[in-house]
Amino acid sequence: MILFTLKNKNLKNALQMFAFALGIALFGGIYEIFSHEVYSYFMIYAFLVPFTLGGMVFLILAAKEKEALSKWFYNFWNSGIITITFGMVMKGVLEIYGTTNAKLYLYFVLGSLLLLLGIMAALPKVERKREDELLYDSNR
Amino acid sequence: MKKHLWALCYSVCLLSFTVYMGLDTFVLSKSYDTAATAEDTSAFEEESSQIQELSSLDSSNKSDTEDTADDGEVIGTYENDNAVITVKEYTRNDTKVYVADVTLTSSQYLKAAFANDTYGRNVKAKTSEIASSNNAILAINGDYYGAQESGYVIRNGVVYRDSAAGKEVLCVYADGSMEVVSDSDYTAQELVDKGVWQAFSFGPGLVEDGEIAVDENDEVGKAMASNPRTAIGEIEDGHYVLVVADGRTDESEGLSLKELASFMQELGCETAYNLDGGGSSTMYFNGEVINNPTTTGHISERSVSDIVYIEE
């Protein structure tokens, strides 16, 4: 049985990300109401980034990992999610207005890079845990 | 504090970049050509025989829209040596539609102008201001090229932007004809060499070869509803209609692209093309704005990059 407490950093992060996703969904919904029925899928689905990459990932981590991962994992991962989400919302705003900006790709490149750095920051601890488990098995 | 230093610093950077993006897209002006009033009329010299033919079409063309859509109320007329203009108001689909029926002796008199005579990004002025400064008797908003980073901009025979956007382009030729082409099929210079006098990049094409070219699912910028619209169409060589539909008000709902295309076909257009709509949709005639442009829910004129006009 898995017991969650708010002392679990992953669960805390998951809840924060779900709240962020809700905020983005509300923002997108309100923006669409005032956009004269001009729709942008980027705006409508921007909330899915923090929902899946944030909330769901942290929820899985909370279920599997009692201990927090490296602080740099959280810094990079959260920043990557927020950057990509901002990029999606900005793309939605531009689409609804009917314009473009060549620099928009920077959100997605930087966001992806931060997510990658987050994974790299998490790997040493995951590897160490796996080694500990193997050592424990072999000693038994 | 130290614990949240990364989050704080990164948030400030991200918000700063987002503010910059907003300013760069919507506010900061970039002028690429500050005296963009040049005209290249060489295509008309090559087409001189064709142009003489157009001048004899005036009286027959004038009756075309009357034959096909005869319920419009005449709200103004104008005539000079080069142009005969009749402006009518129609009601279609709970929408007020303003139609300027224009017959020209040459398409050379179907002109375009930039805001502040400047080609650039975020260089904007109201349609009425641009029209007034160019001594226009009739004007409508153009394709708002300044909101896009690509898409051909050919005005008065001069190429200002030659980057294709994978879009349908409306070409107005020196021989008075109009055609919708894909910008992936021609370079901008090839179009000028073919005799293109004006090229607009917005779209889509509404009517091609007299047939409606859009269906209910074709929309601009995912605008799937009734909205203010601006369109231009050709009935015959040298005989055009400039159309503006009001929308987003209790008095005038606005048109979908399909409805607009049907109306252009009803007017007798062989070719018709959708220009920038929404808050930009403005028609100026004889010194005043004759429609009701809507900007953020209010009746007021929005600034645009460019206009299409007939000189007084």
What Rg of chain A do the Cα atoms give? 18 Å
| Total count of strands of chain B | 24
How many helices of chain A does DSSP assign? 5
- Domains counted in the coordinates of chain B: how many? 1
Q: How many distinct helices of chain B?
A: 8
Q: Mean of residue pLDDT of chain B?
A: 89
Instruction: Give the termini separation of chain B.
Output: 68 Å
Q: Which structural class fits the helix and strand makeup of chain A?
A: mainly alpha
**Biggest sheet features of chain B:** 8 strands, antiparallel
Short characterization:
The complex is a heterodimer of chains A (140) and B (312). With 140 residues, chain A is mainly alpha-helical. Chain A contains 5 helices and no strands.
Describe it.
The complex is a heterodimer of chains A (140) and B (312). In chain A, 77% of the residues lie in helices and 0% in strands. With 140 residues, chain A is mainly α. Chain A has one domain (9-139). In chain A, α3 runs antiparallel to α4 (71-97). Chain A starts with 8 loop residues before the first helix and ends with a helix. The mean pLDDT of chain A is 88. With 312 residues, chain B is of the alpha+beta class. Chain B has one domain. Chain B has helices at residues 5-26, 42-46, 48-55, 58-62, 64-68, 127-133, 188-193, 257-266; strands at residues 30-33, 73-79, 83-92, 95-104, 110-114, 119-121, 125-126, 136-141, 153-155, 158-161, 168-173, 178-182, 196-201, 205-208, 211-212, 229-236, 239-245, 271-275, 283-285, 288-289, 294-295, 298-299, 303-304, 306-311. In chain B, a hairpin with a 2-residue loop joins β3 and β4 (95-104). At the A-B interface, α4 of A face α1 of B.
